[in-house]
Amino acid sequence: MNKHEKWAAAAVGLMVLAGGAIFLFAPTDALQGQVQRIFYLHVSSAIAAYGCFAVVLLGGIIYLRNGSLAADRLARAGALVGLVFTTVTLVMGMLWAKPIWGTFWAWDARLTSTLVLWIIYAGYLMVRRLAEPGRQARIVSSQRLPV
User: Fold this and answer.
1) Which of 40, 46, 85, 129 is least crowded, fewest Cβ atoms below 10 Å from its Cβ?
2) CA distance 138 to 134
3) How far from 136 is each of 66, 86, 115, CA to CA, in Å?
């Protein structure tokens, strides 16, 4: 087992431990009941998603400035992981919303902006996949949109 696998195993172990703490030690909310426990996953997924997208931003900037292939790979990996975390955020939010609000989706600004963020990064990954491989795909996916 190499160094990275050991770190990954430690991270998984800590996540399992935290998952157990959610159900064994966290108190039940007086108003929302057991459903409130979804927030422990929902909020942490949202924070992780925004962290991943900061990695995409930095990787894209470094690639456009220096042409670093490592920065480009980091940006692409950050987008993929961020998309997964954003998906988890949206799904967990909908699972919480149904018993609390009586509907899976309400078109308020936070929900809609998170969905738009998900669409933008799904589009980023599609551009990366569909563009001609090489420098052109990296440049097209890292450029700013015209305002």
Assistant:
1) 129
2) 7
3) 15, 27, 28
